[in-house]
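Lay summary. Proteins are chains of building blocks that fold into shapes, and those shapes determine what they do. In this project we predict the shape from the chain. Here is one chain we studied, written as its sequence of building blocks.
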Amino acid sequence: MSLKRSHPEEEDVEQSGNEYGGIDVFGALNEYRKMQLELAKDRAKAIKDGDIGTVVDRLEQVDKLFDVVKGKSDNVLLASDAKTLVSINELAEMNVRNLKLGENKSTLAIDDMMGYLKKFLLKEYFDLNQITLADTQGSLEDSNEDGNENEKEDGDSRRQDVATAIGERFKESTIRKNYLSQFQRYDEFPQFNWFRLGTLYTNVSKSISATDHLLGPFSLEKKVRTINKKPRVIENIGEMTRAEKVTRNDLNQDQNVTTPEQVKKCFKQLNKKIGVDGRISLFEFIINPTSFAKSVENLFYTSFLIKENRIMLEPDEEQGVPYIRIRPVDKAKKVNNSNQNHIIFQLDMPTWEKLKLKFNITKSFLE
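And here is the predicted shape, written in a compact code that computers can read:
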């Protein structure tokens, strides 16, 4: 439990109404020492009585004293004020632990409080399962009513008879414990209506609704790094071999052998399937429906055939689609002596997919 000092600057405090008005530093220190002595005596009373009103009175006194000395810049004075507040805080904690309630100043038994709390939370459970409670509480109320009537009739004699009063209290305590003992066997979580307890707390408390319950899902735990030691693998070392040295001439020779052979292969298949007089769509000639990379290679080889005047590229007048046909030998000689035009053709994968659907290509022309 902690106490906070009120802010006097927010209130209109008149110096004439303050008992410490006009006091100097030495006088203020003397008042703080007196208050420390009184707090020591209050601790002894707090163990017996547990009266929180004493704490409130002491806090008002120290606030009034602070109103007078708050403008003085003295470290010893401020330290004494802080020490006094700490003592009042300890006194408040001690009073709360020994707090006594009721007219007879009796302490609050934790067993009785838990018993009545279970009774409050088990109401719906008893109604749902048709459980009837033992009517020992009624005898307690009857005993209280009889005692009240006797006090009215013969109040003076009962005040004098202390032994009778103690006996009545013991009887009431026994009846209360017997009544609350029937709730001890209920200890399972689903039996209690926790919503009633939350509603009661919300109604009687003045706390502001918070969202601390949302902090759980957002809490992050630092991941501990685990170091796994891998076993050392010892490989068997074989005989040393020297890598074959590849020169630029070797690369050029392999490329010259590979590319011309593929170009000749494409021309032979075109001549075999359509002949000199036939023609075929460029897309049906180059596109491989199962391989985009192969379609690009076929377009590359076709460009060499057009460059070497082995085939000719011409548009279709009706559809506007480019067609290819084998160029006759006499026309090939004339083209060699004329100017040539260059065409840049771009083939990407989306276009390749659309061309397959457009021309219904299911099998590659070039094998």
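What the prediction tells us: Confidence is low (pLDDT under 50) at residues 6-17.
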